[in-house]
Structures are given as C-alpha cells and as structure tokens.
Specification:
This protein has eight helices and 22 strands. It is of the alpha+beta class. It has three domains: 84 residues, Thrombin, subunit H, CATH 2.40.10; 105 residues, Thrombin, subunit H, CATH 2.40.10; 111 residues, PDZ domain (Pdz3 Domain, Roll), CATH 2.30.42.10. Strand 7 and strand 8 form a beta hairpin. The longest helix is centred in the first third of the chain and has 27 residues. The radius of gyration is 30 Å and the shape is globular.
C-alpha cells in the first residue's frame, strides 16, 4: 500500500513538471497573425452616415404593446415635439391596451394613445416628458413631394425586436399606392429597398440630412421578411394628419363615391375617344354618395377584352379643380392632400363628346365601402 502511494506521488510530480512544458510548446507552435497596422479610419461617407445616426437615434423609440385582444407586439416610432408626442403606425397600436416606449438610453416609460387613423395607417402616442429623464429631441419632417427616385435613404427601427437598427438604401419609386382599410388606398407612398422587416413599422425613413421623408409601414413579401420592397407613408401625409390626431384623436377623410379605372385602348376604340384624352372611366357611382348627388354617371355596359371586362359609356373624369388626372390614384391623392369632408370640388368630365364641369360636395368616408371605391 505504501509503495502504491509513493508511485502515485512520483507520477503526479512528474506530470506537474511536464504539462506546463507541453502547454508552452503547443502555444509557441501556433502561427502568428499580423497585428493591425493602424486603427481603421472611416471615410467621409461613413462618417456622415454615422453622424446622422448619432444625431437621430435619440429621437427614435421602440414600442411594445399588449392588450386583451392582441398578443405582445413591437414596433417603432419617432418624437415630433417636446411635449412627448410620438408618431407611429396605426397597425402598431390599434389593439393595444398597454403601450411602453424604450429610448436608446435604455429608459422604458409608459405611453398613452392620443389618436389614430386607419385610413393613413398613422397614429400618435404620448409620453410624459418628465418620465423620459432627458430633453425630448424632435425629428424634422422633409417635404416628401421633393423626394426623387435614386435618392439615398436610411431607416431606423426595431426589426424583429432588435432595437435601433440602421439600414440604408435608395428611393426605388414614388407615388405608389398601398392597400388601406375597407378597400381604400393610401396614395403617394414612397418605395425603398432599405431593409424593412416586422418591427420597423412606425420608424422613420430619412434622407441624408436626417429629415423624415416617410413612416415605414409595409413590406411586399410572402414570407413577411424584407425582400427589397418596402413602403413608407409620405411625410406630407404625416404633416397633414397628425395635427388632427393630436387635437381630435381622429382624422376625417373626404369621399367622392365612385369606382373606376384609367382609360384603356379598347375603351378608346369602342367609344371613339380622342387620342389625347386621358382620365378615369367611371364604372360605378355609389348610391347616395357625393358623386351621385352631383349627377355623375357610371355605367352597366362593358366590353370583353384579353385583359377582362372593361366598362364603357360612363363619365370620364379628366381633372379635379383643374388638376389633370389619368388614374384613380390621382383622384385619391388630391382628395387626401387638399380636401376635407364638406369641401366642394369641381370635376371636369368628358360626356357625350364634350367636356363639362360638375361641382361635388364631398362627404366623410364611410366606415365600410366596396373595394376600389374612392
């Protein structure tokens, strides 16, 4: 027994000497990689982008919502004044009973719903400035009518709950329309290839001056992940709708009460229309709506074409208040940007081979309507 203990002690002593030698030998045989020659220097473009992010990120927030009718959800938003008002998407907060806002500092505060508008997918929430612990820094709004295709943009938001993420890209298109509620559309939407994913909703789309040109609202993807096609509600729509949400809690959209589409070659040929005539063929006039009350005419007559049935012999709207229109989106954009319920507009129409003007008194958009009615 004594011999075994002695042998174990001797072996342990030998190993204690050998292992450091083996370890040292293994380390010294590893190849050495060259050290960095010097710290990386950001180029001018990178410096500018980094600086814009640093200037703006304090004004963006992550939004967490919960409610009896909705599971826990997240979105984004941005501060618009020192009173604590924050803009986001309607679909981020529409079912929320509880709203929490996280700032980049890590501070989490409660927020209350001020107003929301499903028609533009915009909403306003509010935090108590005293709860934030620092001065609120509003983001400036740009003129979205000046946005151009090819313009470089950046988006800040919380994709998949990852807070304060920056992505960049360009404006891919302007004057897009996306589906709103009850068959109505949101006009003059900005399309971008900057990566937008679930959780980005409500965050700002910015120009390279750090001004908001749009509110990130939707992506076009069957997988609900970024596919290079994202859409933002234009900042001029924010400028128009948000004051009403703050003052009244809602925004009332004006309503014409027609459905139709742009003129097609087959319609021109069948109706023997002038080649330079452009406008919207009125297919249907909503019973009791403003257009019907003003005497606008739809049609029940159609022709078969390789692209489906097309209405003919209805009124053709060529302008609204002197502004030419060639598609329904032009009408929608004008109504959204220049009118309110109760306003009167003048429609220039082509009827029976000549142009005439009809005055229409707009109504408030109904809560529900047939698809594609405007």
């Amino acid at each position: 027994m004594v011999k075994r203990v002695f042998v174990f002690i001797v072996l342990a002593a030998l190993l204690s000497v050998a292992l450091p030698v083996l370890s040292q030998q293994a380390v010294t045989e590893l190849p050495l990689l060259p050290a960095a020659s010097q710290p990386y220097q950001l180029n001018m473009e990178e410096l500018g982008l980094s600086q814009i992010y640093q200037n703006i990120v304090d004004s963006t927030v992550n939004i967490a919502v919960a409610g009896n009718n909705a599971p826990l959800g997240t979105g984004s938003g941005f501060v618009i004044d020192t009173d604590g008002h924050i803009v986001t998407n309607n679909h981020v907060v529409e079912d929320a009973s509880y709203i929490q806002v996280t700032f980049v500092s890590g501070r989490i505060v409660n927020a209350e719903l001020v107003g929301r508008d499903p028609g533009s997918d915009l909403a306003v929430i509010k935090v108590n400035p005293a709860d934030v612990g620092e001065e609120l820094d509003p983001i400036e709004l740009a003129d979205s009518d000046q946005v151009q295709v090819g313009q470089r943009v950046m988006a800040i938001g919380s994709p998949f709950g990852e807070n304060f993420t920056l992505t960049t890209g360009i404006v891919s298109a302007v004057n897009r329309t996306i589906e709103g509620v009850e068959g109505f559309v949101i006009p003059k939407v900005i399309q971008t290839d900057a990566a937008i994913n679930p959780g980005n909703s409500g965050g700002p789309l910015l120009n390279w001056s750090g001004e908001v040109i749009g509110v990130n609202a939707a992506i076009l993807s069957t997988s609900r992940t970024g596919s290079g096609v994202g859409f933002a509600i234009p900042s001029n729509q924010v400028r128009r709708v948000v004051p009403y949400l703050i003052a009244n809690g809602e925004y009332r959209h004006s309503y014409l009460g027609i459905s139709g589409g742009p003129l097609q070659p087959q319609q021109r040929e069948t109706m023997r229309l002038p080649n330079d005539l452009n406008g919207v063929m009125v297919a249907r006039v909503v019973p009791g709506g403003p257009a019907e009350q003003a005497g606008l005419r739809g049609t029940a007559v159609s022709i078969n074409t390789p692209f489906g049935e097309l209405p003919i012999n209805g009124d053709i709207i060529t302008a609204i208040d002197g502004v030419p229109v060639s598609q329904v989106a032009d009408l929608t954009a004008y109504l959204e940007n220049h009118t309110l319920p109760g306003d009167q507009v003048t429609l220039s129409i082509w009827r029976d081979g000549q142009t005439q003007d009809i005055t229409v008194t707009l109504q408030e958009r109904p809560g529900s309507s047939a698809a594609s009615s405007k």
